[in-house]
Amino acid sequence: MRATERLDGRAVIVTGASSGIGEATVHSLAAEGANVVLAARREGQLEDIADDVEAEYGIETLVVSTDVTDDEAVDHLIETTVDTFGGLYGLVNNAGLARGDEVESLSTEDFETMQSVNVDGVFYATRAAIPHVRESGGHLLFVGSFAGQYPRPANPAYAASKWWVRGFAHSVAAQVGDDGIGVTVVNPSEVRSEFGGDDGEAFEDRFDAGEVSEPEEIADAITFALTREHSSVSELDLFRRDKFSEF
Question: pTM of the full predicted structure?
């Protein structure tokens, strides 16, 4: 059953859609009537999620197995979306990961992996999406992080990648705002998902229900931003309630 159908028939891409915030966002957008494009590398999981939301909400989905670090694969994702649905209303740049912690022990491979997903992938998708989102008067949404706003001694390289996302998003907003494109950054702190902390332990294993944010809470914020018709939500922070006690 749909909610208010504020996105009825509009095509929205969600990267990193195979779990966590991405999966929850697919459900949240589908509840508003969006035709959702699921992008990630795990095609089997994407197909299962797509089947579920089509059955539950009666919307159309498209699964495109995508490695966001490959610019040609990202271009294919955008082109296939436009060919299938006749346009693109929204892009949710959600794909991201963390590797390592201390700078002196962080391997070049782990550093480059983080950069390629968290930075390059966001750039490729945004670059390819802008002309189509301009035409539809839609939205670009970036999943940032608490780590992209405050110093994070546990993992400076990851934090820097999220500072880049936030700075890039706001600067893109300055560049394309006159074109009627909405740009939003959503900053979660810890979310109970398979996303790993600095020690590699998934947050869904580390935290009990109620200790930190749930993926659905972040997904609701994303959907709120994408359903603004004439305004642009610049930034939303969703932190666990005791987050600032760490300072």
Answer: 0.93
